[in-house]
Amino acid sequence: MAAPNRGDKLIEIDSPPASFSTQLHFQEFTSNDLGGAAKLEVHNSHTLTFNQTPQTPGASTGASSTPIYNETSEKPSYSIWSLEYYQQLFDVNTDQVVERILWAMVPKPGVNFLQQHIQSKPDLYGPFWICVTLVFTIAISGNLANYLQTAASMHYHWKYNFHAVTLAGTAIFAYAWLLPSCLWGFLKYQGALHEGAITLLELLCVYGYSLAIYVPVSVLWVIQVGWLQWLLLIVGATMSGYVLVTAIWPAISQRSMVLLVVILGCHVLLAAGFMLSYFHASPPPLMPETPAQLPT
C-alpha cells in the first residue's frame, strides 16, 4: 500500500475481528456526566473515546449561585440572613390568597384548614394585609358608629378619634403575631407538640387568616341594633374559632381542654372588646325632666 502524502487526510482502520458485532457495548451516562467524556467501549482492546467540551458562550466552571436543593425536599434551603429566605414567605399569588380567605371565613365541616390549604405553602402575605385591613375597617367603622350614636344629640360636637387606629393596630398585631409566637414557644417548651406537627410559620398563618371574617363583621357592626351586633359577634367568633381549633387540636399531643378554652377565650375576647368599645349600641341618655311650670 502506497504511503499517503502529508496533505491527505486518511484514517487507516484494521479489519475488525469476526466477533466484533457481539462484543460491542454501550455505556449509559447520567445527566451529570453530559459535560464530561462519552466513551464507546469495544472489548478485545478496541476503545473509541470521544471528548465533549461545553461550547456554550459564557459558560463558567466556578461555584453556582443557585440555591441548593436537598435530596428529601424540593424546596430550596436559603440562609436566614439572605433576602431570598424572607422573599419565599410572601411568594403567593392572588388566587391562593383569595381561596384561603374564603375557606377561613366559611370553613368546611370536617376539613382541617391547616392541612388542606396552608401546610403545603404557608405565607405571611395574606395575614399581614388582613391585619392592616382590619385595623382600618375597625377604626373607620367605629368612628362612623360613634357619629350615628351622637348625631341625635344637639349639644354634642362630634370629632374623629384618631387614637382608634393606634389602639386597634396594637391589639390586632399583638394578637395575630405575638400571641401565636408565645403559644408556640410554650408548647415547644412543654414538649406538647409532635415532631414537625405545626411550625411557627404555620401557626402565624392560621391566626392571620382566622381574622379575615372580622373585616366584613366590623363593617356590619355599624348598624345600631344591639341583638344584631351580638349575633354577628357569635357567628364570626364561632366560624373563625373553628378554624383555629381544627388547626391546633391535632398538633397537641397532650390534648388539654384548658389550653383550647384559653385559645378560644382570647379569640372571642378580641372581637367582644372591639364591639363593645367602638360599635355597641348604647341606650340613648335619659333627658332630664323639666319641672312643670306653676300657674301664676
Provide an overview of this structure.
This protein has 296 residues and is mainly alpha-helical. The protein has 9 helices and 4 strands. A hairpin with a 6-residue loop joins β3 (68-69) and β4. α4 packs parallel to α7.
Looking at this protein, list some descriptive labels.
single chain, about 300 residues, mainly alpha, two-stranded antiparallel sheet, about 50% helix
Question: How many β-strand runs?
Answer: 4
Radius of gyration: 35 Å
Portion in helices: 40-55%
- How much of the sequence lies in strands comes to 5-15%
Average pLDDT value?
74
Q: Record the strand order, biggest sheet.
A: 1-2
Number of helices: 9
| Helix/strand order, N-terminal first | EEEEHHHHHHHHH
Question: Which shape, going by the Cα principal axes?
Answer: globular
Structural class comes to mainly alpha
Oligomer: single chain
Ends: how far apart? Answer: 156 Å
Low-confidence stretches: 34-73, 284-292
The major beta sheet can be summarized as: 2 strands, antiparallel
Reconstruct the topology from this structure.
Blueprint: E1 37-42, E2 46-51, E3 68-69, E4 76-77, H1 83-87, H2 94-105, H3 113-118, H4 125-150, H5 163-190, H6 200-210, H7 214-220, H8 226-248, H9 257-279
Antiparallel strand pairs: 1-2, 3-4
Compose a concise summary of this entry:
The protein has 296 residues and is mostly helical. 48% of the residues lie in helices and 5% in strands. The protein has helices at 83-87, 94-105, 113-118, 125-150, 163-190, 200-210, 214-220, 226-248, 257-279, and strands at 37-42, 46-51, 68-69, 76-77.
